Amino acid sequence: MPIRIPDTLPARQILEGENVFVMSETRALQQDIRPLKILILNLMPVKITTETQLLRVLSNTPLQVDVEFLMTSSHESKHTSHQHLSTFYKSFDEVRHQKYDGMIITGAPVEHIKFEDVDYWPEMTEIMAWSKTNVTNTFHICWGAQAGLYYHYGIEKYPTRKKMFGIFPHKVVDRKEPLMRGFDDVFFAPHSRHTTILRDDIAKCPDLRLLAESKDAGVYIVISADRRQIFVTGHSEYDRNTLKDEYVRDKNKGLEIDMPANYFPDNNINSIPQVIWRAHANLLYSNWLNYYVYQATPYSLDEI
Known about the structure:
By secondary structure, this protein is an alpha/beta fold.
């Protein structure tokens, strides 16, 4: 799928180097087609890295996608330049009167904080409320998934005994749901979090369905009964070295952290991590774009 992004976005050069089909705004304007409009609320500190990761996994279907990036106005990013944000990001006030085929809400390193104590929580709830009327389908990732489950359904998060950190095997719970089409009996996904969602809490909510889980990592994919909200507690979009970088960062800070599970061959930090989750990541996002965005969205966005 050609991803339509600004000509000067830093991720463009990286993705083109990986032979990912990236379409510049200049070329896209010459095509007579309505692309899917996808809004990404990027809450991660190092935004350029997350932009690249998400654009990579959105690039694996024949659909054309027009991506816009959203930031919160109530929180000042300390790890991304003001120039980058002002060039490539919009505020909620700039998009609140628009409608989108799909939306992605990323994770954020604030899971140890009570939801209501996160400085941008009021703005976050306003965006999530807006998504119910202005977005065909919203895809929530990690803390974004926990925040969405809490806001929409009152599902609490709970601290884990130690950081859920590594690559874990998962199984499909509900194969009838199109999101899970093509999944292997066992598939792998990265996790990096200090909190979790309980399976019993999902089972007690009639408006939610569990689609995939892990014996080690717990609840993984949940979908709303109306199929307009998807919640993924892991990070299938992660790169080969993302967990390694997190591990080295925390070790250098003197934090107590275990080596990421099932990640380094022979648990040797000097070895190159093997990527065993990328096929699942591409399939997950392709299924989402096809069955929950493209097949579900009206041709005229005004009809959402």
